[in-house]
Amino acid sequence: MKLTALLLALSLSAPAPATGTEVTSVPVTFTTRDGQKLGGRIFQPAKAAGTLPGMVLVHGSGGGNSWQELRPEAEAFARQGIVVLAPDKRSIGYSSSRRDYHQLADDALAAFAVLKGRPGVGKAGIWGISEGGWVGPIAANRGADVAFLVTVGGPGLSPLRTQGWNAAGKLDRAGVKGSLRRTYAHDFHRLAADAGLFASAQHDPAPELRAIKQPVLALWGAADNQVPPAESAEQFTKNVRASLTVRFFPGANHSLHDGNTLTGGYADTVGAWVRAVSAGEAPASSAQPPPAQTRSVATPPSAWWESWQLHAGTMALLLLAFLAYTIRPLGAGRWPARVVAVAGSASIVAFAGTLLALLASSSSRGVAAGPLLMGRPLPWLAAQLLAAVTAVAALACLTQWRAASFRVRLAGVAGVVFIPWAVYWGLLLP
User: 23-31 and 37-45: which strand pairing?
Assistant: First the structure.
């Protein structure tokens, strides 16, 4: 049976929403396992009667920590006859370099307990968007009373691999070509993860997906450019053994809404599915064909020669060696060594500046690559040209080795060490 027909059948067989469009809300508070008091708001149909399904919403990583960020979804789902708790997200213990998905799952379950304690709430589940797609399965597996799971833009890959795909896509849309694409999207982000600047980078969602026993509704925007929709759906289909319904919304973005307007059919799909599952009518597993997407690149653990300590230390030592030569006037010494010192240090500065500028300008809308020449940002192109000059001058230093002074030899050795470092980081690659 085609998915559209299945959803139509569900909407017809499931109880209709309890009311029309009016929604009421009340504030609530809950306490996390580590003692933090967080707020939130419960939304429900204005004239709710009888027992209704419930759902706790789990934030993504973007935006703020307030329940207000989830208000559009909360109100839309309440109009579908669901009692919805939109909680605040913790800020203590949560940052770009520190977060624990198991802790966030415990927070969701603390909110879930408040929702389940409300009169008139029957079977209840978890809804998670984006990062909530990593958190939701953990909460579903830990919560004995969690009856179902809904994910929107749920990542099926590790955070680091997902971010690499995300960053590569931003460069593609900006028109960037060449070695910078892999350098920035993969090697630079992996270095940051190895240095502890990328929280939970290697989290593997597969074990949690395999452990899920509740029905799962997994939704993606077909035009999602933050999480790879096709590959994520593949991982959900491969690992979820319970009832799984996979649907893609053509042309829709990562969050399935723009501002306060939800993608057409999104709330209806969630409402029909939740009402059917809560009535004990979980559908047989089904999945729509995935959209076309560029494939992600695996991010295995770094080898010893790829460690952040080695690369950061190498860059620092190279700069010191180059600057040690330039302490005296540039007129002293031999020209190859002078070229190595000046071009090498300038190449490193332009290299670091390019990567940091891309990182600073990156947002959900894309990345600011600046003016391009041959598909390269001008600072990156300068870094590559200077790296090539440095390599040639370093080899020239070696031909003068016997007659060279210590300072010239130091510059030559630094230049030779610079070559493999520059190759690794794409400065000497097309």
Answer: antiparallel
